[in-house]
Specification:
Helices cover 26% and strands 27% of the residues. It is an alpha/beta fold and 333 residues long. A hairpin with a 5-residue loop joins strand 1 and strand 2. Bound molecules: NADP nicotinamide-adenine-dinucleotide phosphate. NADP nicotinamide-adenine-dinucleotide phosphate binds next to helix 1, helix 2 and helix 3.
């Protein structure tokens, strides 16, 4: 079986540090020696995959490399008693797609500890509509609720709302009865955000204060932030007493220009969200929520499906800030 070939998107580094994306034929022998071989049916596109595809060494150190931090498929071989050939499974995060060949190939081979059995109520395709982005959105909502921000407390701001994390966060919060204000830099997306359940839309400029005042009038009961930088700093300064802000991303900036005043005068809580090393019990709980109580009714509305050939175009759309919702990749069967 080790000589069996399969197709994968491979990113190569040229001598002049250009990163070339091509579909290549690989063999199973090129995959790491690990416990579970999975035939990938679907993968999905996340911001981190884009970073890996353009040569960001903070994500991927060695090239040639196959990105894809998400994969859903069927176990082909297993050395672990926990998984049998034929089991339908989901593998997201850990090192998948970073320095381990990822879901943009027809096969992955990974440690059993990275593998989750597909939960009842969610197809493999649906699990990749969520993917790491949807998982992170759900984890963020879970933390916001655990922090005591109930739906009747006031408005919740979601930044990067047209993106993968943002779209799913808006949808889950709306289902749970929260009043969502969605931030997007693109007015043409506002109708889409309203369809997901946002009650109000504001521009990035409107959500970003430039006065430099350490505290602003309170506007939000809480927030799910996916962009970081001045927008996140503004949000923290605008959250009402006892509010909770979750922070998972840095598409705008990794900087956080702030004072301690929102924390010591308004008791604001800032919660960091990490999906990559999320412990397995929480991981399973979040997937179960996504499969049942928080299953988004309009999943197809946020989904673009492509194949390995169409992936390059979708990566470019994210780079040009023209992407929306979630893109899934159907691998050859
Ligand atoms: N911590 C974790 O475990 C974890 C997991 C998943 C993702 N993330 C991170 O979360 C972030 C979002 O991921 P994603 O998959 O949702 O990405 P995405 O699909 O590319 O969406 C990001 C959204 O942010 C907005 N945006 C882009 N550039 C911006 C800028 N300069 N200023 C303000 N808004 C900007 C865009 O919306 P508009 O153009 O409509 O404004 C875009 O739709 C990324 O940084 C990603 O790495 C972290």
């Amino acid at each position: 079986m080790s000589s069996q070939t399969f197709q994968a998107l491979v990113v190569s580094e040229s001598e002049d540090k250009q990163y070339i994306r091509e579909i290549k034929t690989k063999t199973l022998a090129e995959l790491p020696e690990d416990e579970v071989l999975v035939r990938v049916r679907y993968s999905s596109l996340n911001y981190k995959d884009v970073l890996s595809a353009i040569g960001n060494k903070g994500v991927t150190k060695r090239y040639p490399h196959t990105p894809g931090i998400d994969a859903a498929g069927v176990v082909a071989e297993s050395q672990s008693p926990d998984f049998q050939p034929g089991d339908e499974v989901i593998v997201t995060s850990y090192d998948l797609g970073m320095n381990t060949p990822g879901g943009f190939g027809e096969f992955i081979r990974v440690p059993a500890a990275w593998v989750v059995k597909r939960p009842e109520g969610l197809s493999l395709r649906e699990s990749m509509i969520y993917g790491t982005a949807g998982f992170t959105a759900a984890l963020s909502v879970l933390r916001l609720m655990a922090g005591g921000v109930q739906a009747d407390r006031g408005k919740i701001l979601v930044s990067g709302a047209t993106g993968g994390v943002g779209s799913v966060a808006v949808s889950i919060l709306a289902q749970e009865g929260y009043q969502v204000t969605a931030v997007s830099g693109r007015k043409e997306t506002w109708e889409y955000l309203q369809e997901l359940g946002a009650r109000e839309m504001i521009s990035t400029e409107e959500a970003t204060d430039t006065s430099g005042r350490p505290l602003l009038s309170d506007r939000w009961a809480g927030s799910i932030d996916t962009v970081g930088g001045p927008l996140l700093a503004t949000t923290i300064r605008s959250v009402s007493y006892g509010g909770v802000v979750t922070c998972c991303g840095n598409v705008a900036s990794p900087d956080l220009p702030l004072t301690v005043y929102p924390f010591i005068l308004r008791g604001v809580t800032l919660i960091g969200i990490d999906s990559q090393n999320c412990p397995m019990p929480t991981r399973v709980q979040v997937w179960q929520k996504l499969a049942q109580k928080w299953k988004v009714p309009h999943l197809e509305r946020i989904t673009t499906e492509t194949d390995l050939d169409g992936l390059n175009e979708q990566i470019d759309l994210i780079l040009k800030r023209q992407h929306r919702g979630r893109t899934i990749i159907k691998l050859p069967q």
